[in-house]
Amino acid sequence: MPLLLPLSLAVALFIDRLWGEPPAWAHPVVGMGRYLGLFSLKWLTRLPSLLAFAAGALAWLAGAALVILLALWLEGWVLIALQPWASPLRLGAAALLLGLLLKPLLAWRMLADEVTAVEQALASSLPAGRERLARLVSRDTTALSEAEVREAAIETLAENLNDSVIAPLFWFAIAGLPGAALYRFANTADAMWGYRDEREWFGKWAARADDLLSWLPARLTALLLWPPRAARLWREARRTPSPNSGWPMAAMALRLDRRLAKPGVYVLHAEGQPVRAGDMAAACAVAQRAVLAGAVVIAAFAWALRA
User: Fold this and answer.
1) Total domain count for the chain?
2) N or C: where does the chain have the smaller number of CB atoms within 10 Å of the terminal CB?
3) Is the whole-model pTM more than 0.85?
């Protein structure tokens, strides 16, 4: 069934474009967050380093196993119930159902809408822009300038283009619904546990797992953004502490010819033009083209793996 996964991928992106996110009660990523939130107990952070690491690893592995088993069951149910190899009609029905199951594991429309909302809030006032940005980033936004708010929004767009779109599709192409579900679980766990504070040892396994699963997709995302100075991409991407997020952010900075920075942490494409009004719309347009190109490349990859 070489066509099942490419067709399902197209269905998921089409549903995302039309309707965006499902309600919270039906959203698997919300469920993952609730599971991960069970381990936000303060006593876990007071454990000795090795015990905290072991506890975090076991909690991660247990959650990952649950996610994979549920995804396997759902995908198997689609295959057994519809037998998509039997006829084109059954193939279409299976692709529709599998696409519906895949959709909550990616979030392009919501990401683009949230970034656009930051620019709209800035048009009202700088405090409104800061407040809206705070919904997207973990950094303190209260003292950011207007340019820094835009920089942070564009950086978040580029980073989450990988985390919320390209990487789930990449792992879907390789391992079907369980692959996409495992990636979103790993990425959510890193977002909730992977901090360099008292939670560091408990979240270290989650952070390393996300680094591993994001390694190839992050570089693919950077190439899909097609920076005109691709030869400089490797050097710029290494300026961030993360082994992965710097790639799409650096690619976006080079593609737009804009300087992007996180105060006190990194500066990307330092000789680029300062970010200004209109750049967030340009970044969303570049990211939209990357999503379309990525869908074609990943669908072809999924077909080739199974042809």
Assistant:
1) 1
2) C
3) yes
